[in-house]
Amino acid sequence: MQGRIRHHTGLGWAACLGLSVLSGPVTAQDTGRAPTAIVAPGPTPVTRALSLPASSQVRSQVVVSDLEAPWGLAFLPNGDMLVTELLGQLRYVKGGANPVLEAEPIAGLPKVTAAGQGGLMDVTIHPDFSRNQLIYLSFSVGDEAANHTRVIRARLEGRTLVDVQTIFDVSPAKPRFQHFGSRFAWLPDKTLLISIGDGGNPPTSLDGAFIRQQAQKLDSHLGKIIRIHDDGRIPSDNPFVTTPGARPEIYSYGHRNAQGLARDPVTGRIYATEHGSQGGDELNQIEAGANYGWPKVTYGVEYGAARTLISAEQTAPGLRDPLAVWSPAIAPSGLTVVRKSAFKAWEGDVLAGGLRLDQGRGALIRIDLDRAGKVVGQERIDLGEVRVRDVRIGPDGQIYVLTTAMRNFRDKGQRNGQLWRLSPAD
Ligand SMILES: [Ca+2]
């Protein structure tokens, strides 16, 4: 694919981009129906990420180095940034043309368990931050035998957190340190969505079954997207508040490990990316009460050379189909919808971070959506031998990306994390 990418519709362009369309178009998401509406099963395009064309539209520049396993990025209204480091520090970056990483981390953080995939994960600011200075952090607590994701809010006073309050604890606790999810997204009513992982891969078990089965259980927060008020209270219009035995915080379920979550402020659509198991990574459009299928239906297979099937079917009545599937995996991380950016041609598209494409380098994936929210094309934005962990649009309209090195990215003392700024190529 040569030259500038423009907005296109139709599978002709998808085919020219190297999308491997297995068996036809995506099932339409029927946004007009009640949350529990059944969506007819339909085929979903499966993409081989490495076969995607590389974007020629981007100029990239490292603006901050020496971060230690960065995970989440949030802009303050003044253009400064908060960056979480997985091992448990919150860093302050002065924004502007030449961003500066302050040497001293933010003080007053609670104790975090940093082990395996767990640690200090996402950060977001309250929609009214300018008035209340509230920030939110997600992190893992506990030990090898019993740990879980916790959400706190606190006021940022200068460079110190004060009035730290726990507002949500995932239940049940789980063993081992896999699949925490933990990404935030705000809704316009100032409720907060948080993605929670399924608890891990076999042989990790809970209640006599592989823990992944928790994703289908409404009495568990594992494998869910949850929704709470800004102080942790449960919204009375959550989809399962009146369902006996169900956790009232649940917004959607049947997720494996969603580490990308973003709302389009123009269309109101909510998108999530989740890791599959050896392939089967998904982009989903999230609706209240819907079941996204894991592990009943997935394009992923068990880890290992045998590639044992996890589900006999990839789609089923009553289960939401993904908008896009990546096999092999991209290992999707942070997610953002392109609005108010310097990339005019990308307006309304979705950027998905990829930790690891085909066992090689990570990249950003730009997913071109048409006005109906259907995937009509994808391309790679390569940043070299890095894992892409988070992506945000800055107040200056540029794209900001957190990366780590491919190897040793979360070993203590490995300050190979970077903040990149992407600008439109001339
Ligand atoms: Ca799914």
UniProtKB/TrEMBL annotation:
Transmembrane segments: none annotated. It comes from the Bacteria. Keywords: Signal. Residues 1-28 form the signal peptide. Residues 67-404 form the Glucose/Sorbosone dehydrogenase domain. InterPro entries: 6-blade_b-propeller_TolB-like, Glc/Sorbosone_DH, Quinoprot_gluc/sorb_DH_b-prop. PANTHER family: ALDOSE SUGAR DEHYDROGENASE YLII, HEDGEHOG-INTERACTING PROTEIN. This is Aldose sugar dehydrogenase YliI. It comes from Candidatus Phycosocius bacilliformis. The lineage of its organism: Bacteria, Pseudomonadati, Pseudomonadota, Alphaproteobacteria, Caulobacterales.
